[in-house]
Write a structure and sequence with these properties.
- The complex is a heterodimer.
- The radius of gyration of chain A is 14 Å and the shape is globular.
- In chain A, the strands form two sheets. In chain A, strands 3-4-5-6 form a four-stranded antiparallel β-sheet, with no helix packed on it.
- By secondary structure, chain A is mainly β.
- Chain B is of the alpha/beta class.
- Chain B has two domains: 222 residues, FAD/NAD(P)-binding domain, CATH 3.50.50.60; 149 residues, D-Amino Acid Oxidase, subunit A, domain 2 (D-Amino Acid Oxidase, Chain A, domain 2), CATH 3.30.9.10.
- Chain B contains ten helices and 18 strands.
- In chain B, the strands form three sheets. In chain B, strands 1, 2, 8, 9, 10, 11, 17 and 18 form an eight-stranded mixed β-sheet that branches. An eight-stranded mixed β-sheet of chain B has the order 5-6-4-13-14-15-12-16, with helices on both faces.
- The longest helix of chain B has 18 residues.
- The radius of gyration of chain B is 22 Å and the shape is globular.
- The chains are: A mainly beta, B alpha/beta.
- At the A-B interface, strand 3 and helix 1 of A face helix 8, strand 12 and strand 15 of B.
Chain lengths: 88, 418
């Protein structure tokens, strides 16, 4: 069981959240026409065996989108912030 | 290599079975090989075996960071089937099933392949339509499978809730008679023994830590047991594909996710087949020891930890109990997790990489066990000839950028949903 320290609600169980996936990708601007740029965004993942930046949605809580740094091997969460404050 | 036979078993029995030779050597790594395979699981060992047997390439090393078959080969629920519908998958998994059917004889090693059949249930008229389409597609490709109704399934697989008041009433199933289960460890050991018999060096406790490059091409690997030169390097490390590929400077269309499996306390025989629940993700079979072997969804967030969480366990058994209510009265004896290469379309990758001398086998999602023989067969072909085998020709790395994804589930580029 992961426990995520939501900045608004406090420490809550993983079951209150929905996983939003890899947060290291930035959606290209809509007028971007190069196929390889979109390919990188849609399909390629760094998938590190270490610290991973990812989105979680506090669906059964404050309904904030959070951006979290989590170790992919130990599952230790080292940073939690509102996604909106991280420039996304 | 001493062959196993009934006579040999009898002869060794006379001396208390104390004189069996080691089934493979434990050699020190040589300075260089024609081919180095990273990963001593089923896929890597099968690749080495078919490199030697089909292509005559025997100066080969298989490097394993732990022990043989200690990763996903030893962590799956051992189901073998070939009921895939999308072109690319269809021919590949059927090729694999055909190899399974002769595998024990081929390897002179009992992999306990038991063609006990598999039932994939459906619960709504819409699901029945897609099931019929799948069966028709399989039949048109010459693959045996049939659509059966609930009445016939009830006669063949008693004990499920076939009532109309069931939470998810069973309307019928796709039945594949030739599907079944196998002894997963024996598959790794059988291929290891076979490959070793051809002179392949199987080197355990040897983790790859980097690649040796020359003018961009890969010409060897750095390992915890020293540098090893290689004409060609093949990677078969599913679960860790991104991690190893990153050492070569490649990013893959893969996320790593954890999948759990469960075994119940041993029971008297309940059913002699494999059943997959169509209303939620849950599959079950009974092992020869009597334990019910079960699995369901992945945990849903990226992870390299070979362990799963309790919420997913509860989720899997909620599905299981709605299908087989008596499961609620069983104790779970063992639970474990394995890490899966989840690709962006749910299908694997077997191909030459963009880097000279480097070949990729990975992205098996959670369907890799059944693929083991064909994966080795096709990967060996790719490494030996530098051309794709016809059965795996669509499993390219560039299919994503070219719009040629093989999305069996139709879930889109969402690795945690395949």
């Amino acid at each position: 069981m992961l426990r995520i320290d939501c900045p608004f609600c406090g420490l809550r169980d993983e079951t209150e959240f929905t996983y939003g996936g890899d947060a290291s990708r930035t959606r290209p601007p809509l007028d971007e026409t190069r196929a390889e740029v979109w390919n990188d965004y849609v399909y390629q993942r760094p998938n590190p065996k270490g610290l991973h930046s990812e989105y979680w949605f506090h669906q059964h809580g404050c309904r904030s989108w959070l951006k979290i740094t989590r170790d992919m091997v130990s599952h230790e969460i080292t940073a939690v912030a509102y996604a909106k404050d991280t420039g996304e | 290599m001493a062959r196993f036979s009934a006579f040999e078993l009898f002869k060794k029995g006379l001396t208390g079975h104390k004189n069996w030779p080691a089934q493979w050597r434990d050699p020190e790594p040589k300075p260089a090989y024609d081919v180095v395979i990273i990963g001593g699981g089923g896929h890597g060992l099968a690749t080495a075996y078919y490199l030697a047997k089909n292509h005559g390439i025997t100066n080969v090393a298989v490097l394993e960071k732990g022990w043989l078959g200690g990763g996903n080969t030893g962590r799956n629920t051992t189901i073998v089937r070939s009921n895939y519908m999308i072109e690319g998958n269809t021919e590949f998994y059927e090729h694999s099933l055909k190899l399974w059917e002769g595998l024990s004889q081929e390897l002179n090693y009992n992999v306990m392949f038991s063609q006990r059949g598999q039932y994939n249930t459906f619960h709504t008229p819409a699901q029945r339509d897609t099931a019929r389409r799948r069966v028709n597609t399989l039949n048109l490709n010459g693959i045996e499978a049939e659509l059966i109704d609930a009445k016939r399934m009830a006669a063949e697989v008693p004990g499920l809730d076939y009532s109309e008041s069931a939470r998810f009433p069973i309307l019928g199933a796709i039945h594949q008679k030739r599907a079944g289960t196998a002894r997963h460890d024996a598959v790794a050991w059988g291929y290891a023994r076979g490959a070793d018999g051809y002179g392949v060096d199987i080197i355990q406790n040897c983790e790859v830590t980097g690649f040796i490059r020359e003018k961009g091409a890969i010409t060897g690997v750095r390992t915890t047991r020293g540098e090893i030169g290689a004409g060609k390097v093949g990677m078969a490390v599913a679960g860790n594909s991104s991690h190893v590929a990153a050492m070569a400077g490649l990013t893959l269309p893969i996320e790593t996710h954890v999948l759990q499996a469960f075994v119940s306390e041993p029971l008297k025989p309940i059913f002699d087949t494999v059943i997959s629940f169509g209303a939620a993700h849950f599959y079950i079979s009974q092992s020869d020891k009597g334990g019910l072997v079960m699995g369901g969804d992945i945990d849903g967030y990226n992870s390299y930890a070979q362990k799963g969480g309790l919420p997913t366990m509860e989720h899997v058994f909620a599905a299981g109990v709605s299908f087989l209510p008596y499961l609620s009265r069983l104790k779970i004896l063992r639970q474990w997790g394995g890490v899966m290469d989840m690709t962006m379309d749910g299908s694997p990758i077997i191909c030459k990489s963009p880097i000279d001398g480097f070949y990729i086998n990975g992205g098996w999602c959670y369907g890799g066990f059944k693929a083991t023989p064909a994966s080795g067969w096709c990967f060996a072909h790719t490494i030996a000839t530098d051309t794709p085998h016809e059965a795996s020709a669509k499993f390219t790395l560039d299919r994503f950028s070219r719009g040629l994804v093989i999305d069996e589930r139709g879930a889109g580029p969402t690795p945690n949903a395949h």
